[in-house]
Please model this.
Amino acid sequence: MARYAMQVSYKGKDFSGWQKQPNSRTVQGVLESALELLAGHPVTVYGAGRTDKGVHALGQVVSFDLNRHWAPEKLLLAVNAHLPKDVRVMRMRYVDNSFHARYSALWREYVYFIWTGRVCFPHFSDYVWHRKQKWDISKARRACKLFWGTKDYRAFCRKSECPPSAFRTIHKAEVFSRGDLVWFRVRGDSFLTNMVRIMVGTLDYICTGKKDIDYLEELLQGKAERPDAGPTAPADGLFFWRVGYPWSLW
Amino acid sequence: MARYAMQVSYKGKDFSGWQKQPNSRTVQGVLESALELLAGHPVTVYGAGRTDKGVHALGQVVSFDLNRHWAPEKLLLAVNAHLPKDVRVMRMRYVDNSFHARYSALWREYVYFIWTGRVCFPHFSDYVWHRKQKWDISKARRACKLFWGTKDYRAFCRKSECPPSAFRTIHKAEVFSRGDLVWFRVRGDSFLTNMVRIMVGTLDYICTGKKDIDYLEELLQGKAERPDAGPTAPADGLFFWRVGYPWSLW
Model:
């Protein structure tokens, strides 16, 4: 038996998300099919994060076991040859048997892109939230600071999936802009369902003047509920960007 | 009668290029159809440059006449509503009746993207030449300098379309890189058919060690023919980036 880790990049558009479901095209599903075809035995893959329907990934990390040893370089080419064009294995390596893409991860990083121009270039319209309104970037920067640290994110979670404790630790949350493109980068231990998209929807309220910064401060006091926060921003703009482990994986 | 100029961006993939042809989906064709539907009379559009099949544009400039006056802002929205998703009008304005997108242009700028990594992210694989070999960037930079100025580009033109005089003036030609992404940016008065793609194919010979820099110097002496230069690099990596006029258009 050999354990492998791979970096996987995909377009979210034509997937019903990461997690395998009957009668749906999922990233986990197409990865397992490709690996099973090569290995000739059932394979289960574990992803560092479960992306929702429509969410993209540049740096999803996936671990799995195969009965025999493959040179990682050769396995990478073979898997890509069996995958549809909208998923690519970017890197592949052996890992120790104690490694687990999800449980060994120390942090996850997401990037969310917003296009604030009137018209969006067709080349990247699938990868942004086309919000035809300017964001006040200095407000965005001040608001972002409120996310730093350990806070109660119960208002930032899809209601039906909110765990008993919704405390999460955010290491970093920043907003950048260049021309009409705005992006939000956030790194944390782990995230609740829809959490990044609700963070963006809430920032949007603040940056377009619908709410002030105190509003966000209150949402993070642990007394707010899901309907109090902003809307869930569309999946198109969201990228699962990078995963951190105790040692450098690549 | 009113004359308009618009900036047009498109994905090249599903177009047989700019120029109208019977039974082909062309950018000129879809723009004229959309405008004719709005105007209720025949419309001819003129583009600053004719892009080939598969070539993209961010900043194509297009001029045309309509019988009646439209507020440019309103016309922009109306045209976009009648266009397929892979073409977008980014800006629109009135122009003087002496303006012509092609004949008034002083320079054109193209950018060509090359992905030199083993595997390409699916999000931009339609927009690069996936050349799985590293480029020697310092060689690329030295080679680029040879393009500057007025030279005979007969070896850099599709044979059947080479005009009697193939002298062209290049104002600027530069190569940049970041990680596995390399891009070539070139600005000139005007370009021959396939010229930028043959420049890239020739740079590729030099930057991957197949030829040395003297080779390019010789090609530009006016004694070489098309087969002497490098191959025509694929259309996917090429973007018609920007057009310059005697005054700022936007």
